[in-house]
Amino acid sequence: MDQGFRATVSDSQLTAQSGVAWAAIAAGAVAAAALTLVLVAFGAGLGLSAISPWSNSGASASTFKVGTGIYLCVVAVMSSAIGGFLAGRLRTKVVGLHSNEVFFRDTAHGFLAWAFATLISATALVSSTTYLANGVIAGVNGGTSQMGPAADPAQLYIDKLFRTPAPGATGAATRNDSQVKAEVLRLWKSDLRSGAGLPSSDQTYVVQLVAAQTGLSQADAQKRIDEVVTEAKNDADNARRAAAHLSFWVTAALLFGAFAASLAAAEGGALRDGTWNGRVLTPREI
Question: Where are the chain's structural domains?
């Protein structure tokens, strides 16, 4: 009779007690988010110091991209494991549950801590990750930051179209082409946005403008336009591929982080319910 009464009291207490300890989850999430930002900032510094604008010096761009992806995975595992461990270790011990149920709740707390940390650090992590992934560009262009505000990327290709021979060379034309460049820039943004290239009517018009402004023949102007358009398309394709690779690495890092947080929370729960033998902690069997 006494054992039945104790079982009834235990069941009522378990029913009234919530299975989710949000305080422990929040504590683990804050720790994981803070550690992630610190490690990403540290990795950005390492990346910028490893990249050099000079040839045969520092890491290559491909090596930098792969290293960035691996580092993001390492950061996710380390920070998520610590956050998950704290969420599992700080969770209140529940008496009267089966060991399998305790293991599931600890694992769930680690996963929720990872999810919460991902949400609260999303904005800062995206900006930091973008800075880390673009470190090679920042390293190469670091010396140009004092030259004024950033120019329109498409303006570079327009300048290549209207590049004239050196002053004094044969065929050099008088440079008064700001309005012409502005017009071609508008055509460039409108026509190349879909990646299909310049329409025949616009291409004929641009060939005439380039030939008139640079002193090139019609054939040479056409050749220059084809080269610049091809270069612009290749740059756009490279940028898209780089963004896709970065997305894959970020996805892998998030999955590794979720697994590490859940596993570490289970370990933290085992230590939380363990027994102390002097100064030695014997974990609970999982």
Answer: 20-141+240-282, 152-236
Contacts of 198 (CB under 8 A, 6+ apart): 187, 188, 191, 192, 206, 225, 229
- For the stretch 80-139, pLDDT in tens is 999 999 999 998 888 788 888 889 999 999 999 999 999 887 766 566 556 555 554 444
C-alpha 284, offset from chain centre: 38
Single-letter amino acid code for the residue at 224? R
- 93 Rama sector, left if φ>0, alpha if ψ -120 to 50, beta otherwise: beta
pLDDT tens digit sequence for 144-189: 444 344 446 666 567 667 655 544 444 444 445 676 777 677 767 6
Please tell me the distance from the alpha carbon of residue 87 to that of residue 99, in angstroms, as a whole number: 18
Looking up tokens 């090139």 gives 216
CA nearest neighbour of 135 among 45, 40, 252, 74: 45
Give yes or no for a contact between 140 and 48, defined as CB atoms under 8 angstroms apart.
Answer: no
